[in-house]
Design goal:
The protein is mainly alpha-helical. It contains 38 helices and nine strands. It has a five-stranded mixed beta sheet. A two-stranded antiparallel ribbon has the order 1-2. It is elongated.
Length: about 850
């Protein structure tokens, strides 16, 4: 194929210029994403300078898989394994197999080490932060590889189109979104490279052409062979990353070759185009050999097995056989009619190779291919977004995104169909091949939306060959004008809108609510760790919450949506679907669950039940353990409710949470008390107060409910009732705690302007046991209260002097002494005491706001007036 011809110098000068611009755009977008994530990361901190969780960075809502990749990378960096084959992050307490790509995990580790070397940030945080830069860097490298390869074979027009598409096309860019270190982008480019090579190999066809003249098929058999090798290696690398995502595209490329042969092969032959079956055979052999090699890299020597969800030698044989079938089909279809079915035995071996994997799956089912298990099959079919058809997925799209997916990205296919209709038999075989491939990929993407990413590269390949089709008989200048117009129509607008939107978000400090969910999960992780500072935490919650909460706390979880975690997801479903709390308790013990997080957003409780009981009714679902806890608030005694309130800056998410710690030693009063605390924290104050009242009535000897009830009365400004309730609670508390409780609650009343009640509590405390703090604080109120009837300068001075005997250098005691002396008219002595209080506060390095208070009181005394508060 040849789209443009230019000098070597011009070709690479243009390409390097385009690459430079692409790098600027990619890394500028990454910088914006870094700033956006910084804004996101400041949410949910509750006034702290930073998060307390082991992992901290925010991620876009769709990037849950990136969090899992980071955890896998951390496991590799902290362990002794080279291959990524096992994890303990879910399916607790057992762990599970991992069939993700080890090389990409090590790339994440390497990026983290580079970031650590330049910044000194701890490695775990460096790995997190490096994800923002790793994905654009990886995309840029892949842009250079694909566009340089295409430029060498078709001219710089091809390189420019590929660069623009890979930078701007939403589906391609989505897989390399900054911080989204998932493998989907790698798979998209692998399929793109495979299809690009297949188009450049002419779909198995070639036609001699004059050098440097525009052409739509390879000009030689050698050029077609080179393209076939590139295509096969691209596909094999995709198989290494994810066979489940690349095997269907390999099949579709072969099928497109066969369909195009049927529709146009004989006409192409009549037009002087040459079918070369050896090109398809080479494609199959190189692809099979390379995918087998990558299988050994990933699994040899200790992890060889019969797991057909991932890359496997059976698929290499299938690729080899499928390519041979396409080659033989072409030979037979284009040959004389009488020879088409001669020697059918030749087809037996390739058919057998092709059928080996599917027959093995059909016979052994979930033993070799877990997704055939009804539990996982129903999960993927009904509950995972990317497996839903496009007409369901598009309901969650914005209008712009729907227009982009349904129309703009299909413009090449529409144009190709019109071209074939208009030109008919004159259209080169390559256009038929690329159109057939695009139709097949689009059908796959409309069936399951996850294939949209893979279809994007195929659409770009079709656009490239259409440029040649429309302009082959025109000047190179015309070809450039058409190319730039097409790039400006299909790709540039998306890139511009994306960048402008990112700038607006960063400048406006706007954060997507769904992205903010991650910060809520980070806060939840901090709360769970605060409830258990040491030891392993195993969290039971919904699948999506499991990924994010587990990430930030580095906790173990049960149920996530990865196919390797079939057992863990089933175990989580068993607990939430238990018939009663006793059955749930037994399972919780079995799986070592330490905490439960019940989150209103995507709680997955009905889905868990339906996965285990597909025919269940709504009434049956409502009787299960998870529903009873989540919606009916039937909390078993062994669940200790944790007091948790959503951070103020995240309350607009309108997500309700209940957090529990498994505590089989908890008695009923303790359980009720913790439920009441949780209710109050959640904002259900009236319900919490009723629970406290129930507990006070049923177990009046327990002091905590009295104190909490008193605090609620304080908040309601029911001062007298609050004082009575608090004094009752203090009397029941351990004696060692009494002084601190007296000081705390009297201080609350004093700051609320209830000086008389504060005096009452201070006096009660002093009557029970003398402490210098109680004497000091009571002396302060008696010396400074604005209520004349409450002041007693003589007693205040006596109390201050007694307190001074225990610590003559205490700034607080000196401050009270100064106030008492001033109240008694002894201003000179008061000045001396106030000055010493301020000086000693400096020496003790008290907070600046405390020192400022002492300085202000000194100025009052200097004016010759007593202090009034």
């Amino acid at each position: 194929m040849q789209l443009s011809s230019e000098s070597y110098r011009t070709r690479w000068l243009v390409l390097v210029s385009v690459w430079t611009f692409a790098a600027i755009v990619l890394f500028a977008q990454a910088g914006l994403m870094r700033d956006y994530l910084a804004t996101l990361g400041r949410l949910g901190l509750r006034g702290a300078s930073g998060p307390s969780t082991p992992l901290q960075q925010g991620y876009p809502a769709f990037a849950a898989d990136a969090q899992t990749w980071v955890r896998h990378a951390l496991a590799l960096s902290e362990g002794n394994d080279i291959q990524l084959r096992w994890t303990t992050i879910d399916n607790a307490p057992y762990g599970r197999e991992v069939h993700w790509n080890s090389a990409w995990a090590w790339c994440i580790v390497g990026a983290g080490h580079i970031y650590h070397a330049f910044t000194g940030v701890p490695l775990a945080h460096a790995i997190e932060r490096s994800t923002v830069w790793l994905t654009p860097a990886a995309l840029f490298v892949l842009i250079v590889i694909l566009s340089a390869w295409a430029t060498r074979r078709a001219g710089v027009i091809a390189g420019v189109v590929i660069t623009a598409a890979m930078v701007c096309n939403d589906r391609i860019y989505e897989g390399f979104f900054p911080s989204y270190v998932d493998h989907h982008g790698l798979l998209t480019v692998a399929v793109f490279g495979m299809m690009l090579g297949a188009v450049f190999m002419g779909g198995g066809w070639w036609k001699p052409t004059t050098p440097n003249k525009a052409a739509l098929l390879p000009g030689s058999l050698a050029a077609a062979r080179n393209a076939a090798i590139f295509s096969a290696i691209s596909g094999a690398m995709g198989m290494w990353v994810s066979a489940a995502s690349v095997l269907p595209p390999i099949v579709l490329v072969g099928a497109a070759g066969g369909v195009a042969l049927m529709l146009h092969g004989r006409r192409a032959q009549a037009n002087g185009e040459h079918f070369a079956p050896e090109i398809w055979r080479l494609w199959g052999r190189v692809g099979a050999a390379a995918s087998f090699f990558f299988y050994l890299v990933e699994y040899f020597p200790t992890h060889l097995g019969m797991r057909l969800e991932a890359n496997h030698p059976f698929y290499a044989l299938g690729w080899l056989g499928g390519a041979e079938i396409v080659a033989q089909f072409g030979e037979r279809w284009l040959g004389p009619r009488e020879s088409r079915w001669q020697n059918p035995v030749r087809l037996a071996v390739p058919f057998a190779a092709t059928l080996l994997a599917p027959l093995t799956i059909l016979i052994f089912r979930e033993k070799v291919y877990l997704i055939t298990d009804p539990f996982l099959f129903n999960l993927h079919k009904n509950y995972i977004q990317e497996f839903l058809p496009i007409w369901k997925t598009i309901q969650g799209f914005s209008a712009r995104m729907a227009y982009q997916v349904l129309f703009v990205e299909n413009v090449p296919l529409i144009a190709a169909i019109l071209t074939l209709t208009y030109k008919g038999s004159e259209t080169p075989f390559g256009v038929w091949f690329a159109t057939a491939a695009t139709l097949l990929f689009n059908a796959l993407a409309w069936w399951q939306s996850r294939w949209l990413l893979n279809a994007s590269g195929v659409q770009v390949c079709l656009a490239i060959i259409l440029i040649g089709t429309w302009t082959i008989h025109y000047t190179q200048r015309t070809r450039w004008l058409v190319t730039l117009a097409m790039v400006g129509l299909l790709y540039i607008p998306s890139g511009v809108l994306r960048y402008v939107g990112s700038v607006a978000d960063v400048q406006g400090h706007r954060v997507s609510p769904k992205d903010a969910n991650n910060m809520l999960f980070r806060d939840v992780a901090a709360a769970l760790r605060a409830s258990q500072p040491e030891g392993d935490i195993v969290v039971l919650t919904s699948p999506n919450s499991s990924t994010s909460i587990g990430y930030y706390g580095r906790f173990k979880t049960l149920g996530t949506l990865y196919w390797e975690n079939d057992a863990g997801l089933r175990h989580a479903a068993e607990v939430f679907s238990a018939k009663n709390e006793d059955e749930a308790a037994e399972l919780i013990r079995k799986y070592h669950v330490t905490h439960l997080a019940m989150i209103s957003e995507e709680n997955f409780i009905p889905q868990y039940y339906m996965l285990l009981h597909p025919e269940a009714t709504v009434d049956e679902i409502k009787k299960c353990f998870g529903w009873q806890v989540m919606y009916e608030r039937h909390i078993p005694q062994w669940l200790q409710m944790l007091p948790y309130s959503t951070p103020d800056d995240l309350k607009q998410l309108n997500i309700s949470l209940m957090l529990f710690k498994v505590n089989f030693s908890q008695n009923m009063p303790e359980a009720l008390y913790n439920v009441a605390l949780g209710q109050v924290a959640m904002g259900a104050v009236e319900e919490g107060e009723k629970t406290f009242d129930t507990l006070i009535k049923g177990a009046p000897q327990i002091y905590q409910p009295w104190l909490r009830k008193g605090e609620l009365l304080l908040a309601r400004h029911n001062w007298n009732a609050a004082t009575e309730t608090l004094l009752k609670g203090i009397s029941l508390a351990p004696a060692v705690d009494h002084p601190g409780l007296f000081v705390n609650y009297a201080g609350n009343l004093y700051r609320s302007g209830q000086h008389a009640l504060a005096i009452r509590i201070y006096r009660t405390g002093l009557g029970e046991k003398y402490t210098a703090d109680l004497a000091c604080y009571l002396g302060w109120v008696l010396a400074t209260s604005a209520e004349d009837s409450l002041r007693n300068g003589k007693e205040a001075l006596q109390l201050a002097q007694e307190a001074m005997q225990s610590d003559p250098n205490s700034p607080s005691y000196l401050n009270t002494l100064a106030a008492a002396l001033a109240e008694n008219g002894r201003i000179k002595e008061a000045l001396d005491a106030a000055d010493r209080a301020l000086a000693n506060s400096h020496v003790k390095n008290d907070p600046p706001e405390i020192q400022a208070i002492f300085a202000h009181r000194l100025e009052i005394i200097k004016s010759g007036k007593p202090i009034r508060e």
